[in-house]
Design a protein that fits this description.
Elements (H helix, E strand, L loop, with lengths): L2 H16 L7 E3 L7 E2 L5 E10 L11 H18 L3 E11 L5 H17 L3 E9 L5 E10 L15 E5 L4 H9 L10 H8 L5 H10 L2 E6 L4 H12 L2 E5 L10 H4 L6 H7 L6 E5 L4 H10 L4 E8 L5 E4 L5 E3 L17
Parallel strand pairs: 4-5, 9-12
Antiparallel strand pairs: 1-2, 3-6, 4-6, 7-10, 7-11, 8-10, 9-11, 12-13
Helix pairs in contact: 1-3, 2-3, 2-6, 4-5
C-alpha cells in the first residue's frame, strides 16, 4: 500500500498512533490548527530545521528510519547548544505519493525512537505531497531556566575553548558511505555517527547549570565554521591547537580510502552535533570537575583572543597560521565539505 491510498487523514492518525504522548503539559496535541501547551515560568527556546532529499541526505545511504532520526536530532541539538531541555516537536513532511506505507512507518519509527530517547513530544505539524523527493521540517520547543540560555555572543578574551566528543566522525562516515563498495570493516562507528547523530543534551545542561560557560554552539557546519560564528557574534578571535584536538582513531583500512587526513575532517567536516563552547579560565578547573562527575566527555582545544588576531591554528611544531573558518554553506560555491 502507498500513502496515496492512505490519504492525509489516515496518515495523521497513523502518526498519532505511532508517536503517542502522555506529557501532562500538553493541553491539545496533534489534530487541530495548533497545539496547546501549558508553559512554566522557564524561558522557552524555539528552533526550526529542514532536511531535503539530495541536499541533506540521499536514499542511497539513508534508510527511512535514519531520515526520521536525523530530522529530529538536528533540532534537538539546537536546544542542547543553548543549555535547554527539548520538550515539543512540530513535524512537517512533504512526500512523493508513491512512498510505501511500510517505508513511511519506518520513518515515523525513527522519529519515535529519538523522540522517546530524549523525552520529546510530537504535538503537530503538516503534511504535503512532493514532486521532488522527501522533505522533513522540524520545529522544536525547549525550556531553560530563566536567564540561563547559552548564546553565541558571550565569549570573552582569555576564555578557554572546549569541544565535546570527537569531531570529524560524521564526515568520515559520509566518506565511507560514498565508497563503492562500502568497506565492511572498521567503519560502523563512523557511519552511525553520520546517519544517527546523538545530540549532546546532557552536556548542554551541565554547561547551563555550571554558570562557567560563556558561549556555545553545536557543530553542524564544521568546527572552524561554527567557531567563526561564536567569534563573529562575540567580536573576538581564537587560537586552536591541532595537537589538542580529539581526532578520530581511524583504522588503516579506512584511512587509505579517505581523501584527507583526520584533522581535516575534524576541522571542516560538520554534522557532528557536538558542542563547541567557551569557559572562563578561572572557572575551568571547577567546570572540568563537574564534567567528570556527570560523565561528559570534553577536551580543551584553545582560547579566545582579541578580534584582530582572527582565527589561528597552531600545529604541533608550534607554528601558527591564520585560517579561514569556512565549512558547509548551502548557497556559496566552493565551500562544500570534501567527503
Amino acid at each position: 500500500m502507498y500513502i496515496e491510498q492512505l490519504g492525509e487523514a489516515g496518515l495523521i492518525q497513523r502518526i498519532k498512533r505511532k508517536i503517542p504522548s502522555d506529557d501532562p503539559s500538553i493541553v491539545l496535541g496533534i489534530g487541530d490548527d495548533a497545539a496547546i501547551i501549558h508553559s512554566s515560568k522557564r524561558d522557552l527556546l524555539l528552533s526550526t530545521d529542514t532536511i531535503r532529499e539530495d541536499v541533506h541526505f540521499s536514499r542511497k545511504y539513508y534508510s527511512f528510519y535514519d531520515i526520521g532520526w536525523k530530522a529530529v536530532a538536528v533540532s534537538i541539538s539546537d536546544i542542547a547548544a543553548m543549555g535547554g531541555v527539548p520538550k515539543y516537536l512540530l513535524l512537517s513532511m512533504a512526500m512523493p505519493d508513491k512512498v510505501s506505507v511500510k517505508d513511511m512507518d519506518k520513518l515515523l519509527d525513527g522519529v519515535a525512537g529519538i523522540s522517546a530517547k530524549y523525552n520529546v513530544s510530537v504535538v503537530g505539524g503538516n503534511l504535503s505531497r512532493s514532486k521532488q523527493g522527501i522533505a522533513v521540517d522540524t520545529t522544536i520547543v525547549g525550556e531553560v531556566s530563566g536567564g540561563r540560555a547559552l548564546l553565541r555572543s558571550g565569549a570573552g578574551i582569555g576564555d578557554m575553548i572546549y569541544v565535546t566528543g570527537c569531531p570529524g566522525m560524521s564526515a568520515i562516515g559520509l566518506s565511507i558511505l560514498k565508497r563503492v563498495p562500502v568497506p565492511k570493516r572498521g567503519g560502523k562507528s563512523f557511519v552511525t555517527a553520520h546517519l544517527r547523530p546523538e545530540p549532546r543534551v546532557s552536556a548542554g545542561l551541565v554547561l547551563s547549570k555550571s554558570k562557567s560557560a560563556t558561549a556555545a554552539i553545536d557543530i553542524s557546519d564544521g568546527l572552524l565554521a561554527d567557531l567563526g560564528h561564536i567569534c563573529e557574534r562575540s567580536k573576538v578571535g581564537a587560537r586552536i591547537y591541532s595537537g589538542l584536538l580529539p581526532l578520530p582513531e581511524v583504522p588503516d583500512s579506512i584511512r587509505k580510502i579517505l581523501a584527507k587526513e583526520p584533522l581535516y575532517y575534524a576541522l571542516y567536516g560538520g554534522e557532528d552535533y557536538e558542542l563547541l563552547f567557551t569557559v572562563r579560565p578561572e572557572k575551568s578547573a571547577e567546570f572540568e570537575s563537574l564534567c567528570r562527575q556527570q560523565d561528559v566527555r570534553y577536551t580543551m582545544i584553545g582560547q579566545i583572543e582579541p578580534s584582530e588576531e582572527g582565527i589561528r591554528l597552531v600545529n604541533e611544531d608550534n607554528k601558527e597560521s591564520v585560517i579561514e573558518p569556512y565549512g558547509y554553506d548551502h548557497f556559496k560555491s566552493g565551500r562544500r565539505r570534501l567527503c
